[in-house]
Amino acid sequence: MNSEKVVDFLGQVALLLRLPSSSLRKIAAKVELRHYDAGDYVIRQGEKADGIYFIWKGNAEVFESVESEEASYPLKEYDYFGYGIGVSINEVSVVSLSKLTCLVLPQEYFNLLQPNFIWNADESPESLSIVEQTLRLEPIEVDIFRGYTVPGSPVFRQVFGGQFIGQALAAASKTVDCLKLAHSLHAYFIIAGDRNMPIVYHVHHLRDGKSFATRRVDATQKGVVVFSLVASFQKEEPGFEHQHAVMPLVPAPDVLLSMEDLRDIKLTDPRVPITYRNNEARSDFLPWPVEIRFCIPIEMARKYRSEPSLMYWFRIRGKLSDDAALHRCAIAYASDFLFMSISLNPHRKKGLKIMCLSLDHSMWFHRDCRADDWLLFVMESPSASRGRGFATGRMFNRKGELIVSLAQEGLVRKVAPPNRAPPSKL
C-alpha cells in the first residue's frame, strides 16, 4: 500500500479528524489490508472482536442478528465499524455486498485513537508553549469545541482578537482531513469576549470537495455569537509559482532588542517621563507569548505623530508540535498584535486618548512555514476614515519568501473626556 494514499484516506474518516497528524501516520503504519468477496462475513455476531474496520472500497450491510435477513443499515467508503477498548465480542454481523476492501486497526493499537490532545499524541500540556496550550481545544461533540484563555495569555480588557482567530481556525482544521490546510480566512469580531469565560466554537460544514473544503465557525459565550470566521482549505497540489513582493532590507532579528529589553531601557531612560517609568516599575510585567523585535526603535512612552507603518520580526515562544495546521493557527494567533494600532500613528499627540477595536480580519496563506521560527511582519495603513482604520500586511520568512498576506479593518475613535460636574458653590 502507498502510505500517503493510506494517510489521505484515513484523514477523511470522521472518527479520525480530531487526531494529530502524527497519530494518523502511526495508524497508517499499523492498519492491515483485508479483502472480501460479495456475501462474505466481515465480522460475525458472537465472535471475538479484533479491531476497528475502515471501508476503503466497496459496500457492506450491518445485520442485528445472524438469523435475521433484514439489514439494519448500509455501509460505504469511509464508513467504519467494529468495537473499541473494553469490548471483546462482536454484537452485530457485517456482510459485504460487493468486493470489499477494509483497513483494520488491531485492538492492540487502540491507544492511537486516544492522544493526549488534538495537536500532539505524546506531550503533556504543561510542557507546551502558551500559544499551543491556547490552541489546544477540548472536543465536546461532533463539530463543537471549547477553548479557554490560559494563564500567561496577553492581558487585555477582553479576549485577545488573535486568540479568537487562532482557536476558531483550530476548530475548523479539526473537521477537515489533515492533508487539507487553510489557505484563507475571513473573520468578524462581533462582541467583545469575556476572557474569564470559556468560548464554545460551533463548526458548520459549507463544502467538502476533493481538493477544497470550506468551514464557518461561530464562537459563542452565554449563548451569544461573539465572533465568526469562514476558512477555506486546500489539498496541496503543484502549480504556477511567482513572487513579485520583495522583503524589505532590515536588520536580522538576532541583532535587535526584544520588547522586554526595550522596556528595561525605558525604565531608566531620563528622557522618558518619570510618571510613566514609575507606573511601569510598579506594574506586574508579563511577556507576551509571541516574541517581537522591532526593526526600527519605537517610542513606547511618547505620543507623537509618525508614518502609518511598522515592521517587526516575531516568533512563537517555545517549540510547537510538528503539525502544519497548528503552525498556521499559531500565525493567525500572532497576526493581531499591534496590527490596527498603526492606523493611529498619524493622529497621535500628547493627551489624546483613542479607542481601537478590530472589526474584521483576513489572511491568505501562500507557503508553509514554522511559527516558532522568525517571520518578518511588514504592515501599513493606507487609509483611515469615518471612524475606521484600514491596515494591510505581509509576512516573510528569513529567506525572503512571502508566507502570508493580511488585511484588517478596525474601529478608531477619539475617547470623549468624562463629563465633570460643575464645582459646588456651597
CATH architecture of the largest domain: Beta Barrel
- Unreliable segments of 5+ consecutive residues: none
Mean pLDDT: 87
Number of strands: 20
Oligomeric state of shown chains: single chain
Number of helices: 7
Q: Roughly what fraction of the amino acids lie in strands?
A: 25-35%
Task: Look at the helices and sheets and give the structural class.
Answer: alpha+beta
Give the strand order, joined by hyphens, for the main sheet: 9-10-12-13-14-11-17-20-19-18-16-15
What is the CATH superfamily classification of the largest domain?
Acyl-CoA thioesterase, double hotdog domain
Order of helices and strands: HHEEEEEEEEHEEHEEEEHHEEHEEEE
How many discrete domains?
3
What is the CATH domain class of the largest domain?
Mainly Beta
First-to-last CA distance? 93 Å
Give the biggest beta sheet: 12 strands, antiparallel
What name does CATH use for the topology of the largest domain? Porin
Indicate the radius of gyration in whole angstroms: 26 Å
Organism: Spirodela intermedia
Subunit structure: Homotetramer.
Pathway: Lipid metabolism; fatty acid metabolism
Pfam families: 4HBT_3, 4HBT_3C, cNMP_binding
